[in-house]
Every structure is written in structure tokens, then in C-alpha cells.
Amino acid sequence: MDIYSDVTIPYFDAILGTTLRIDTVDGAVDLKVPAGTQPATTMRIEGKGAPKLNNVNMRGTHFVKVTVEIPRSLSGKQKELVQSLKDAQ
Hints:
By secondary structure, the protein is α+β, with helices and mostly antiparallel strands. The protein has a single domain (3-87), classed as Urease metallochaperone UreE, N-terminal domain (HSP40/DNAj peptide-binding domain, Sandwich). The protein contains two helices and seven strands. It has a three-stranded mixed β-sheet. Strands 2-3 form a two-stranded antiparallel ribbon. The N and C termini lie far apart (43 Å).
């Protein structure tokens, strides 16, 4: 009854948080990704999995695994901004 899917987000969305549109068996729903989400975090959308056979009132959960995309290269300006963020800690 449970459904599993993966989604990839940019690192800045993982840091700042975002809202994603996730396709479920009942149509698209908004999934709020909180600020500070770590790579390989699995989020749950309760009641949006497949219905149980012979009992359509029982539903599984849709699990969404979040992969954070880290860029392989940065422009000079991007490096500067990331370094500024690091120095501000």
C-alpha cells in the first residue's frame, strides 16, 4: 500500500526550505521541505499511498526520499557567496 519516490533538489533549497509538487495516485500535492533538510531524508505524505484491497477507506503512505544536488563546479561569484556563508557561521 505504501508508495516510494525520489526527488532531487538543489542545495540552496535544502538550506532555505521549499515547497515541492509531488505526483501521487490522487494527483499532485504540495510537500513542504523544511529549511536544513539533510541529504537522503525521507518524508511522508500520509494517506496518499495505494488503497487497501477490499477496504478503500484504508490508504498507505507515500514516502519521498530527498536527494540534495551538490554542484560539481561553481562560478567565481558563487564560490564567493558560499565562502561568505561559511565565514558567517
